[in-house]
């Protein structure tokens, strides 16, 4: 599936369709609305531009919108900070990051840092969500997916994904929205482009979520794993950008101290510790 040429227009239409009139202080309109969300004319009024100008912006006929116009449109549709940043990139007003040869190389100091979280799952992801490095806890949690290092492929193609990830739909949606954000930041990244093309053809659930055209950083998350022999493991995740390798992210998932999840993690690590003689 080829990506649409007018990414800016597609993003604007998707967000306009999911913005309810009442969200922006307009009357609901009842049954008089033939389409979901806001009309083009309403966005134009809210943004302080002409209806013709906004229509040209959506249709890709306006190629050089000013920062002030893009900001006004983003505010008119109440876009989140992540979505507004993505909008600026699509409008060519925020420099896209170029691919770097070393983006998939994890710095030795970061590798050492992973082991500083002995009771937490810590791993490093590439912009395309390849697992570049992981500590012992993350290795144990992701063991059912050994041989599939890309987390997007795990979620949409691995037969055990919905068994291990109890809240699969929540995790899958958040991952696709973050991947689209990365696609805007790194438009020349062949790994992201190839992944999106592949899964758009092969995974209907991915295609549906990708077509939502939403963007959001991973930031904080709550994930529940269910693993044989360990049971239910609940973790709260925090995501950190790796500034010396733009696009890499460090994810750290921690259990509640003293909880059943913390004990389950200890049981996961016990066989490996016995095997090492410690």
UniProtKB/TrEMBL annotation:
This is Transcriptional regulator. Coiled coil: none annotated. GO terms for molecular function: DNA binding. Residues 33-84 form the HTH cro/C1-type domain. CDD domains: HTH_XRE. It comes from the Bacteria. Pfam families: HTH_31, MLTR_LBD. It comes from Streptomyces dioscori. InterPro entries: Cro/C1-type_HTH (IPR001387), Lambda_DNA-bd_dom_sf (IPR010982), MLTR_LBD (IPR041413).
């Amino acid at each position: 599936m080829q990506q649409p040429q007018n990414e800016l227009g597609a993003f604007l239409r998707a967000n306009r369709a999911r913005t309810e009139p009442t969200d922006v202080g307009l009357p609901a309109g009842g049954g008089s609305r033939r389409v979901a969300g806001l009309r083009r004319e309403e966005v134009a009024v809210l943004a302080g531009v002409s209806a013709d100008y906004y229509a040209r912006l959506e249709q890709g006929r306006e190629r050089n919108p000013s920062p002030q116009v893009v900001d006004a449109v983003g505010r008119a549709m109440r876009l989140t900070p992540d979505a507004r940043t993505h909008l600026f990139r699509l409008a060519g007003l925020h420099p896209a990051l170029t691919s770097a040869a070393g983006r998939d190389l994890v710095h030795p100091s970061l590798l050492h840092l992973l082991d500083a979280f002995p009771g937490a799952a810590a791993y490093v992801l590439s912009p395309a969500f390849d697992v570049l490095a992981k500590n012992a806890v993350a290795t144990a949690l992701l063991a059912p997916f050994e041989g599939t290092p890309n987390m997007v492929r795990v979620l949409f193609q691995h037969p055990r994904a919905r068994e291990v990830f109890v809240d699969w739909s929540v995790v899958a949606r958040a991952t696709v929205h973050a991947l689209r954000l990365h696609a805007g930041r790194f438009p020349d990244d062949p790994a992201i482009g190839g992944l999106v093309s592949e899964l758009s053809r092969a995974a209907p659930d991915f295609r549906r979520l990708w077509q939502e055209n939403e963007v959001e950083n991973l930031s904080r998350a709550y994930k529940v794993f269910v693993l044989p022999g360990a049971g239910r493991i609940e973790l709260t995740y925090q995501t950190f950008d790796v500034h010396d390798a733009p696009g890499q992210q460090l994810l750290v998932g921690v259990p509640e101290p003293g909880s059943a999840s913390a004990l389950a993690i200890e049981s996961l690590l016990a066989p490996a510790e016995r095997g090492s003689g410690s």
